[in-house]
Amino acid sequence: MQASERMLMGIFNGEDAQRGYALNKMCHSLNDAANRAAFMADIDGYCTRFGLNDAQRAAVKSRDKGDLLAAGVSLYFVTKLMRAYKGGPLAPVPRGAV
Hints:
The chain is mostly helical.
């Protein structure tokens, strides 16, 4: 079973955690609005800051959930990354707008 299939089934093991550590750490940083702005201003530079490899960087740029899961991102952090993209399906909602 491939990593992306395991993750879709909710199976996340130590090997997956090690492989995706840098990518997950970067996605976690996107909780902060200033970090989301820095990410959008220079995606390559932001990925470099967290030490992402070429496959992870390509997955981030593709915005494809399957590619992201295969690159080692936790399903939880897929949403963090998607909301960083302006106008994305999970773009942040301003406080008080709901």
